[in-house]
Amino acid sequence: MSHLQCLTMATALILLQALSTVSCSILSRADRITRLPGQPRVGFQQYSGYVTIDDKKQRALFYYLAEAETKPISKPLVLWLNGGPGCSSLGVGAFSENGPFRPKGSVLVRNLHSWNQEANMLYLETPVGVGFSYATESSSYEGVNDKITAKDNLVFLQKWFLKFPQYLNRSLFITGESYAGHYVPQLAQLMIQYNKKHNLFNLKGIAIGNPVMEFATDFNSRAEYFWSHGLILDPTYKMFTSYCNYSRYVSEYYRGSVSSMCTKVMSQVSIETSRFVDKYDVTLDVCIPSVLSQSKVVNPQPQQVGETVDVCVEDETVNYLNRRDVQKALHARLVGTRKWAVCSNVLDYEVLDVEVPTINIVGSLVKAGVPVLVYSGDQDSVIPLTGSRTLVKRLAEELGLRTTVPYRVWFAGQQVGGWTQVYGNTLAFATVRGAAHEVPFSQPARALVLFKAFLGGRPLPEEF
To answer: Cellular component terms, GO, for this chain's entry (predicted)?
Structure first.
């Protein structure tokens, strides 16, 4: 985007800030969802549609907004980003995790623990080529990386506010999971830089679940997790930590040159952990919908000759979002593909960006006074809690933050919800007991308690 375009947009946004008391922008009316097919009656508004981020190349990002169930004007705006890279925030986040509805057969049922009970939830299918987001030129799907994604997401928000000026001064939080450990901090960093000149974003905090933040630490914590949960033997654990750790394997795999040693080690690890155990939730019965397999980079699985991938017979979300009447209601269209997919099959992402750490960016956000919550489902072996906890503790020490909430249990209902520790007043870590890689899907009630505390800037409950 050119300097002139930035000035033009900034001017437009300043004018809109003065008009932000207007209940709804004329631009957003066309995106209002009258009613989704099979949807139960609700009292909140929904919107979905496109924001064009590049007029010349016709690149457009698709969004879905579920306003808060009650008093939306007084509730914050929360942006949710799923990972992958290349997986859908609409299909995974909104319709499988923390959105207001879940597809069930031909209808939608209410999610009793939807996050729009506490906030106005904005789900973004990013980058271009994911879900309903598209470009008219297929070359736009090639060579996409973290830098491009972060800039596109920033432009999206700037232009989205032109449609929804009533949200301009609202408290804004960014949340996400998995590879969003790259997306979320990088976007927040650009927002802070943009605010130095234009003071547009009222950023109040970020929360990232089971996030990729530091390649070696996150990936290599997998070996200890497997061993401590009885999934591999002592000799295999020694091989997995001494001869070929997981970060080395992934690095070799994405460079197309897996060594014989790593092949041997990974073969033994795969035999012992078994294909009948879901690595995203080691306690879950096998055969989960493909909507949960949102990670391409963090869990590469080379397919053997003759092997087929079991994504289960029925995938409610995929079936629902591929219905013509649903796409019409969402103001969505398929461009360059015949079918909506959970994870993009047209996007060519720079997978080696996974090796670039973002924990340093998280640190810069904390130093800038932006509250950060890192949370982990404790049944996830893909990005285990031990790696995330280590990184947060190390960051707190580097920043000289003292512990303000000692490591302790927190409660949801009358059960232990997990464990938590807080450093200073801006950096927190929490586990969610019994939760998988997708925390809001696997432990929705506990996830909602966590989310509510995060928005309110309060420690997690320490009693029933």
So the answer is: extracellular region; vacuole
């696997």: which residue's tokens? 442
pTM recorded for the entire structure: 0.92
Instruction: Write the DSSP string, 37-78.
Output: TTPPP-SS-EEEEEEEEETTTTEEEEEEEE--SS-GGGSPEE
C-beta separation of 176 from 80 below 8 A: yes
Taking residues 59-67, report their average pLDDT: 98
Burial class (CB in 10 A: 0-12, 13-18, 19+), 355: middle
> Is 228 annotated as catalytic?
no
Catalytic residue among 28, 88, 281, 437: 437
Instruction: Name the percent of the chain lying above pLDDT 90.
Output: 81
Smallest CA-to-CA distance from 442 within 148, 247, 209 is with: 209
The answer to whether residues 59 and 53 touch, using CB atoms and an 8 Å cutoff, is yes
Which residue is catalytic, options 178, 247, 290, 442? Answer: 178
Catalytic residue among 146, 315, 353, 380: 380
Domain residue extents for the chain: 1-217+316-464, 218-315
The verdict on whether 437 is a catalytic residue reads yes
* pLDDT beyond 80 at 462: yes
Catalytic site includes residue 178: yes
CB 123 within 8 A of CB 51: no
Mean pLDDT of the chain: 90
Architecture of domain 1-217+316-464: 3-Layer(aba) Sandwich (3.40)
